[in-house]
Amino acid sequence: MSEPKHKRHKSEQEVGTPPEFIAAIEKRWGKITLDLAASDKMHVCDEYFTPQIDGLKQDWNIPAAIEFCNPPFGKIGPWVKKAAYTTHSTGFMRPTILILVPAAIETRWFRDHVYTHAKIHILVPRLKFVGHDSGFTKGLVLCEYPAPEWDIGFYYWHWR
């Protein structure tokens, strides 16, 4: 029996976001101040929520903050829902929340909490997560919350 040609990516939180991608985000939006779904091993800034702290139970409404989230891909819905709610329900000095997710446009979470609430940056080229030899097998998007009604939609971002 032969080995499969492609390794499947781990479905776990201990897969890091590439540092060169984080550098591109910070060049475009500014220094990330809070990592919403991190671990003690994998985080993109000094302030972060671990699974033990549970970022979904924390307040994300930090005025003028740049918040980043690479959520567990097996349970994306609650993360994008909280981002949409946080940035929709707050006042003038809302945080900017950037969430990295697969471009799963057919899902309920995408339809209800991304498509109608975020500016969607289609990432080109594909990302290669820390700890993997090849690029992620599916397209990814970076969802930017909040997005004014006139700016909701899909945009290509050549991040490299």
β-strand percent reads 15-25%
For this structure, the CATH topology is: Rossmann fold
Return the CATH class. Alpha Beta
Assign a percent range to the helix content. Answer: 10-25%
- In CATH, the architecture is 3-Layer(aba) Sandwich
Biggest sheet strand line-up? 1-2-3-5-4-6
**Euclidean distance between termini CA atoms:** 39 Å
Unreliable segments (pLDDT under 50, ≥5 consecutive)?
1-12
Based on the model shown, name its key terms.
six-stranded mixed β-sheet, single chain, alpha/beta, 3 helices, disordered N terminus, 160 residues, Rossmann fold
Verbal overview:
With 160 residues, this protein is an alpha/beta fold. It has a single domain (19-158), classed as Rossmann fold (3-Layer(aba) Sandwich), CATH 3.40.50. Helices cover 19% and strands 19% of the residues. The chain has 3 helices and 6 strands, in the order αββαβαβββ. It has a 6-stranded mixed sheet with strand order 1-2-3-5-4-6. Helix 2 links the parallel strand 2 and strand 3 (96-102). The longest helix has 13 residues, at 77-89. It starts with 18 loop residues before the first helix and ends with a strand. The model is unreliable at 1-12 (pLDDT under 50).
